[in-house]
Description:
4-stranded antiparallel beta sheet, disordered C terminus
Amino acid sequence: xxxxxxxxxxxxxxxxxxxxxxxxxxxxxxxxxxxxxxxxxxxxxxxxxxxxxxxxxxxxxxxxxxxxxxxxxxxxxxxxxxxxxxxxxxxxxxxxxxxxxxxxxxxxxxxxxxxxxxxxxxxxxxxxxxxxxxxxxxxxxxxxxxxxxxxxxxxxxxxxxxxxxxxxxxxxxxxxxxxxxxxxxxxxxxxxxxxxxxxxxxxxxxxxxxxxxxxxxxxxxxxxxxxxxxxxxxxxxxxxxxxxxxxxxxxxxxxxxxxxxxxxxxxxxxxxxxxxxxxxxxxxxxxxxxxxxxxxxxxxxxxxxxxxxxxxxxxxxxxxxxxxxxxxxxxxxxxxxxxxxxxxxxxxxxxxxxxxxxxxxxxxxxxxxxxxxxxxxxxxxxxxxxxxxxxxxxxxxxxxxxxxxxxxxxxxxxxxxxxxxxxxxxxxxxxxxxxxxxxxxxxxxxxxxxxxxxxxxxxxxxxxxxxxxxxxxxxxxxxxxxxxxxxxxxxxxxxxxxxxxxxxxxxxxxxxxxxxx
Length: 517
């Protein structure tokens, strides 16, 4: 029987909270006894999350838990008794949740905004009569207070220890330091990443230093107050041998004859009007397609995503980090010169998440049922089946220790899941969601335009009979054709034609249009 892997663990002195798919469990930390679990509650007693829990945060006092899943509902829970306090509708899917010291809840979403919510919603927080914030990119049906906004998907954020500043990171390589809660006042930018930023951390032993990582081959250390880059630490060469999970290549789906084929890129409507795939595949076709998809998965390129960076004061100046799809946990000494040694602790299964304890222990959550073919095998034997592994820090490395009662309980009392549940969970979605294929999209768009026959006698408004080609697209294509004729020896060819008009309603901008509109 398949089972849910654990995706988050909040370990406290008296009790611990663990997330597994759509379920929440509260356990006694010292004995491992399950105190409360949503898996044991009937639907008429408690409102469960629709789909897996994607974001979760525990308040600093340990009394409250905030979660959000695919249903775009922000749910707050009282840990003692696992009582649901409130359920509020979010405007967009959250990407990160954190608590402030006042127990206010901060939520970042895919549209780049951060909203603040009170722990207990006011009676007037409802969709009726709510007016949109003039600075927000979208309406908020639950009346959250807008703190700040980015022009890109927010991946993570962190409040400084004194909560005077909030550090935010996005998919477009930006790190911003803003005042809190006056997010409109920007203190500095930490600019230098060439790819998405997916993890940031401010060590307690060095509160003026920010560590960031993402798709680049290095971890970057910043003086976040001034935005100055202190140094780069190359980690990719040490991590690469342990990355076993690669993103699958997208395949064309079979569609009904009356159903439009959805675009595979970011440009909507690219494939509308093209020939549709008719019928449904036979059993042999499906088997062949699955085999081809497995082969393409094995041949797909490696994607590097730093998942988490953490530290605790008891470990000295040691920085621990994990990478999506890697089978080891990595660590380094921050004061170990300009080129510190990157060490690792292997687990032989992909690391999902980890939690550092103040006592020098580390609790690692594993995708123990993952197989090298990219699917999930049955439950293994012995240590191979452990969803949770515990290590303790010695003088120079992590070492295996006798599992604590909490870890033993988590490994024995697992929650069943179907293959559909595990597919919906999609543990490695960041491998597809974070990388941007702007060059590939631009190339595809150019090829699509070049394959279309362009009638020089366009209609009066500058549009072709093919509705997919806008005036801007026609102009760009004509310009390229004229340049090609010049290169082929067409002397006397004129490049003069009407300037490109600003895109109207329904026009599609292609990469490279920035600054020309």
